[in-house]
Amino acid sequence: MQPSPAAPISCRRVGVRFPGGRDVLTGVDLDVPAGGVVSLVGPSGCGKTTLLRCIAGLQQPTAGTIEPRPEAVAPGTLAYVFQEPALLPWLDAVHNVMLPLDLVGRGTPPARRAAAEHWLGEVGFGADDRAKHPGQLSGGMKMRVSLARALVTEPAILLLDEPFAALDDLLRTRLTELLLDLHARHPRTMVLVTHNIGEAILVGDEVCVLDGGRVGGRVGVDLPRPRLARSRGGAAFSRLYEGVSDMLAEAAR
Amino acid sequence: MSRPRPSLAQLVLESLPAAAVAVGVVAFWQFAVGHWRIPAYLLPSPAQVATALWDRRVVLGHALWVTARAAVAGLAAAAVIGTALAILFSQSRLVRTALYPYVLFLQTVPIVAIAPLLITWSGYGQRTVILVSAIISLFPILSNVTAGLLALDPNHRDLFRLYRAGRWPTLLRLRLPTAMGHLALGLRISCGLAVIGAIVGEFFVGRGSDFPGLGAVMDRWLAMGRTDALVAAVLLSSLLGLAMFAAINLLTDRLLGKYVQGTGD
User: Fold this and answer.
1) What ipTM score was computed for the predicted complex, to two decimals?
2) Which CATH superfamily is domain A9-73+156-252 in?
3) A134 vs B258: CB contact, 8 Å cut-off?
4) Which positions ≥6 away from A12 have C-beta within 8 Å?
């Protein structure tokens, strides 16, 4: 399976007005360089998920432009990890991961299976559990399958919508480290929506704070890579944390 | 997680209260008939019913087989037609709004009112009995499967949109599997109705022929005042309904079980 080359994302004055007339996004400008990672934070209801859905093509913006246009790229170029694992309960882990390849019609069935098994291995999912159905898996295992499913098409752009929000702290830390490790080994353009400031700093090259329907502030993250969860302890991390916290407090006011 | 199967001892233990009630009811019935000298044409004693059951075992056995076959065929036809119509309904709101009132009509029209019409069109035979059984069992299957086909998890729907899955892949890989649990529910509701439909159909069909089904023989024994045989046939009808329900539960658990378990999201 040929990986798609990482592609930049460019949002210009993106606006979204909901049918009731409420403006969720009022002119978002956001750039993510090819292979770069931007973390989006902001108060609840500020439009983080809406922006991510627009980039994925799951929702049409009512104003502005987004590049690449989702309808102009080959299916499988964009991948999305939902807040819940969203696995199909009637398929086992391998077939859940194969699903995107089946839907876009890429590769032969044996090649699809091999790709699914490869990516399950990459996210640390045990070979013995591949035939298990979602109802037999723990929350962390399901999220690993969900990650593998997003990666199986070798997407150029990976969009993550609070993927670890429902997990306990220990599991969340482990999966954040897995995400960092995956990005180090297979760099691709990523946008991570999160409520967790530490996670946003640890994963992103830049943290953008959404405020009032637009990007209200940006903090560049100059921490060296590879990063580990224990990088959180340093002075540089604390300075960044304070910077993002102050912006969030301003946005919440 | 799949449900752990109860052991035989657990099943026996759980059935004890219901069995005790049955024994109590039969004992009181036997006592009441003797004590108040109730005539047999009004209410025969359990012993008389048991004797009628034994004496007419060949006729009743054959009648049970004929009715069971018609009920199963009616339910199967309702499942196939109901699922096919539900697929049609799920594809377009226009089709749904155009056809749904007529499906509702099929549900609300009293089956005893259209049974004579069905005989006019389809004759005094098993086909008519199956038709009545299928019509009466259709609605729960159709409405449940339609609801299942339309009740997609928003994330699943987004996932299929993300990979630009067309109408057919979405139907086959997402909508139909999602609706399987609803089909199982519809079948469970309809299996009792299928038996009722078959018996009602046989009442009418039996009046113009020597049809051998339970409904037809019950109608004949009613005319002859053989209440003991009638009660025996009623008991067999109830047992048939229970057996159908148990069989459908087993079948849906085996075949559709994996579609029904949750993701635990």
Assistant:
1) 0.93
2) P-loop containing nucleotide triphosphate hydrolases (3.40.50.300)
3) no
4) A29, A64, A65, A66
